[in-house]
């Protein structure tokens, strides 16, 4: 049995630190994306007998190779503590004790991990796992401090002990939706999730936008409605795919809007925050564009215009409206980075097309925080560009990613290859799009980026490959 210990401090009381870990979404927020992907959090969180399921990353893979791992929780040795032990995974034994103790100015967190491999005697593997645990717990600590700072800036109910807002979220099963829900719930707000399947958790409620099914009482309950639903656009733009992309966004938004409009004035939510995309500006821009720029040309621009027009109808009922025009979200949990990074590790990575086109990107943490920012501050209205301030070209992105992974970027992907994968329209509007988009409104409203530069983002999402 090998023992690993890690100690850190946070500027919260021991009770508040324990309560934060006991909120739905804490494991999602705490986990470095390169270290593990959350499949299903335990419920109730950290309660004895509850089980968490994750996909833990193979050391050295930068989060690109993952194995299933599940653990069951039990009581810890003191009042503010808990334990999780291996239920199923690639190790023979694993026991992680989390203990929170009050110290001057905050709380000392003691993490003790006891583990063993099967078969025994591979000291090199143990040393590799120790280095990986050191990197993981250092990253966990940075993530928790980042979230504490964000909670402090938003006067989170968990810290102030004031009543939180009631947040209803559609599209919570997606990569962004999971993080948005976790940010709200760990901060002490009350979160309910609209799900298409049969609800299995107390905070889930059913809807079926394809059939026009929704319970108006669920929207009447909410102070804020957040909608992140929509079929993925990373596909060939065939006629049927275009129809599904359009209808999955417009029809679901229309159902939410019309249901809100039908409610008595006193029962309507205060704000409706709906997803959109930088595709609104089209696939080619000569100069940087902010939210005041006109819509561009192309299929995605048309969809975004119709999508935002539908969402904006809530203003007729006095509900504040925000549409989040999201750029390319960079994360090892999904999207462009997850697709391209393995190619770079294999020495086959490089720029897309000419490499001169601008890449309007944003980190997963920042796009999730942008939604929370839009909900909590009533001076945020209308379209909001969710992109990082560090505008880069495809060639600069390729060079930065290659450098981070210690690989060359010598194998460019010609335009005709992306056309084979995405079709001519898809390639033009996605992989080869030149989108010089700036986050004017986010910065005007005081938003502070967690990962403002591409280097910051790659460090957070890929780690060091320990």
Present the secondary structure layout.
Elements: E1 2-10, H1 14-21, H2 26-30, E2 36-40, E3 51-57, E4 66-75, E5 81-88, E6 93-103, E7 106-116, H3 123-153, H4 157-160, E8 166-170, H5 175-186, E9 190-195, E10 204-206, H6 216-221, E11 224-227, H7 239-262, E12 271-277, H8 299-312, E13 320-326, E14 328-330, H9 336-345, E15 358-359, E16 361-363, H10 364-376, E17 382-386, E18 392-393, H11 394-404, H12 415-431, H13 440-444, H14 454-462
Parallel strand pairs: 8-9, 8-11, 9-10, 11-12, 12-13, 13-17, 14-16
Antiparallel strand pairs: 1-7, 2-3, 3-4, 4-5, 5-6, 6-7, 15-18
Cα shape = globular
CATH secondary-structure class of the largest domain: Alpha Beta
CATH H-level superfamily of the largest domain: NAD(P)-binding Rossmann-like Domain
What ranges have pLDDT less than 50 throughout 5 or more consecutive residues?
Answer: none
Distinct helical segment count: 14
Roughly what percent helix?
A: 25-40%
CATH topology of the largest domain: Rossmann fold
* Tally of structural domains: 2
C-alpha end-to-end distance: 21 Å
CATH architecture of the largest domain: 3-Layer(aba) Sandwich
Number of strands: 18
Beta-strand percent range = 15-25%
Largest sheet: 7 strands, antiparallel
Overall radius of gyration? 22 Å
Cross-sheet strand order for the largest sheet: 1-7-6-5-4-3-2
